[in-house]
Amino acid sequence: MPTKLKVLQVIPKLGYGGAETGCYDIAHYLYENDCKSYIITSGGELAKFVNKSKVKLIRLPVQSKNPLIMLVNALIISLIILFFNINIVHARSRAPAWSCLLATKITRRKFVTTFHGTYNFKSKLKKFYNSVMVRSDLIIAGSNFIFSHIKENYSDYLNSDKRFLVIFRGINTDYFDPSTTLESEEYNLFKSWQLEVGKKIILFPGRLTPWKGQEMFLESLNKVNTNLGHEAFIAVILGSQQGRDLYKKKLIRLVEQYRLTNQVKFIEHCKKMPLAYKICNLVVSASIEPEAFGRVSVEAQSMQKPILASNIGGSNETVINDKTGFLYEAGNSEEMSKKIIEILNLEENTLKQMGVEGRKNVINKFNVEKMCFSTYSEYKKLFN
To answer: DSSP strand E in the chain: where?
Structure first.
């Protein structure tokens, strides 16, 4: 009887981000394909949804960057590898990757990393710390943009022994499906957010942090008002501040300064994101630094909504300009405001056709099944 493939994924926290949902999806996919699946994490909101009968969940402080804790984690992970006879260890962040690198050296197991972001490398020490993500047997880049970034900045660590490829992140297109939301749910969300009927809704999802571009978005809305007046739209900035209280206060001051108080709403969280997309007319992603992938752009397209995204990073790959969405020059509030006006004035049929093309684009390239199958196929190559 052939030995079952046993994969251990290690991630700091199981939240709702792209790396975390990818880890969650692959863990369950492995079980469905007759493999043994394990996750080591410190916890997180998504952890409670892991099916414990399918995936073994082990809690360790792998979010810690304390060198001593990282060393202890490495020793415990080594014991876990030996106890469960793990074949492949897949790390999805730098701190746990150092622990996994040491553990796989000790136990002589295959090591996989997914490079999820560009990571800051302003100093040589920081670059060395990041380099753990390219010290594995298999390096997965989440987009062509990340692939190029690795080749450009970490070529010293790459050699012919390593397998290095792109596997696009995927989303659940059955979950992000406009046909599955109920009118009653849409109405309730509309009511709870106190939105006005008859006004266009602009949705800006993403945590409150300067590089996500909320300041520039508000600046653009001020320019849109000059052209369309104060009754044309309501903007919903959807995301938590995650301790960035000063930044949120700054955004509130800008809203007051631009006289947008009656048009901009700050909402911390939405339990069912497909509903948020469904009730809006336009989705905006205004990052002023490159997104590794740009999940918002993909989710919006899957929900058949027009997306306006900055033309840097992953959005260049996920959005087909003027066909499945719109791109504008990153950091240019003037161009952004013109695009918003243009989109809000588009005919319904044009938007409908764009929505159809957007969903088709996501199903073909960025669906979760494709991501899981590609990752599983790579695991099998390492295992055999």
So the answer is: 6-10, 36-41, 55-59, 88-91, 110-115, 138-141, 163-166, 200-205, 233-238, 264-267, 282-285, 307-310, 326-328
